Amino acid sequence: MDNLRFQVVAEAFKKRPLEVKAPAERPYEYFGKYVFNREKMYKYLPKDVYEKLIDVIDNGARLDRSIADAVAAGIKQWAVENGVTHYTHWFQPLTEGTAEKHDSFIEHDFKGGMVEEFSGKLLVQQEPDASSFPSGGIRNTFEARGYSAWDPTSPVFIMDDTLCIPTIFRRGA
What we know:
Elements: H1 2-14, H2 27-30, H3 38-44, H4 47-59, H5 68-81, E1 86-91, E2 99-104, E3 106-108, E4 114-116, H6 120-124, E5 125-126, H7 141-144, E6 146-150, E7 157-159, E8 162-171
Parallel strand pairs: 1-8
Antiparallel strand pairs: 1-2, 3-4, 5-6, 6-8, 7-8
């Protein structure tokens, strides 16, 4: 056992620090670049939708589902402009970790083709796949009676080519 410890220590001494190159731009040029913050909301959402969404975020107003399609359209436009191809409802189940259910913007058109879509319905609420549940995926999704719902108080963000939508996980009845 002592030999193993010495091997680990010897291996650790071989490691060299990674060279980190400081960004060339000023911090204000990249800080929050991949976060759908108020600046982007104002740019990508109609004024009335922006005001309603800010009321939800700042004052805890009830999310009006009638604005969901406009919010989803604004978020999708911003995301696609930043190279996003997929989205995920990112949540923290009862497993003390995080979980994600990835989807693409591609949906069946039910005529044998595909359409690129991201609606308010897809933004606001999703049914996670069964593997995300504390049971470890023993049951089928339709039996899980749970869903993830968008948390508008946590900003949507981009990681690599994926739009991450912070959500809460809620068990159904």
